């Protein structure tokens, strides 16, 4: 496992990290803990979760959230200090009018609830999950700065923010002498390259760490789904993830998988390994947050991290992507 610097901070994170959106949602606690064991054994030191991760995400029930944090808390008992623990707040986690968003009111409660579920006194990286246009950034950043000073959070970051939103936040933090967003968590994969236009150049310029999510396109880039065929029984499409179905319906996903298959074959890699190696071939990515639902998937994938794609291979992939009609920034 290789470790990379997270933005301008001194924090080093494994170039592959463990996402836990599946925990308690489409995999049970026993299997989730085995996934954590396999991740730590592989040298992964960053675990990412969120207060909203849970069964309610598929059921449309905001009261059914938090299962992932609860399981992560149990899985890390006795070894909390071995990991960089990241979580998020913003999403609706109850039916009350203030049970969502980035108000000071909600953030204080969200952080306390995350700490309780995670069985820890502090979160290493606390990320606001999305931009909240209804709350002044000053209010959000002020609350986060206080939580850092109280020792409940070590670093702050954001997720799914546009470059201008982080730039505005940085301006406020600098003016007030507050802690700033040191990282951003966007989606990034061969299927989703929108960040290359503005967010990546901005992050490089301002030394903002990028923890990118869904490097395998939620599983699509492993080639396990075939057009017109039922999904494999033990897959998460079969488990009913709506965002995954949307991604399949709204992209030339199947065509892209077929277009890059020969490139994976040339390397002797699986499609999943190629997709992960592609993300890691970009030095602006601090870590790619993988979704793992079976412990053996980690060892299978990590063989890809021994190699990087050459400039020629990256150009071949761009060419294949354009050919199937994928938008490249
Ligand atoms: N900030 C945000 O808004 C946001 C949004 C989404 C995700 N995230 C974070 O990013 C993490 C990863 O997201 P993701 O799960 O969408 O990522 P992903 O890595 O693109 O997809 C993971 C899926 O790929 C399949 N897979 C993984 N390894 C495999 C292997 N070796 N062979 C075959 N299939 C394999 C699994 O499918 P099966 O389950 O079918 O086996 C797994 O569910 C989440 O857990 C979460 O922490 C953040």
TrEMBL record:
One of its GO terms (molecular function) is oxidoreductase activity. Keywords: Oxidoreductase. InterPro entries: AKR (IPR020471), AKR_Detox_Biosynth (IPR050523), NAD(P)_OxRdtase_dom_sf (IPR036812), NADP_OxRdtase_dom (IPR023210). This is Aldo/keto reductase. Gene3D superfamilies: NADP-dependent oxidoreductase domain. Residues 16-321 form the NADP-dependent oxidoreductase domain. It holds the Pfam family Aldo_ket_red. GO terms for cellular component: cytosol.
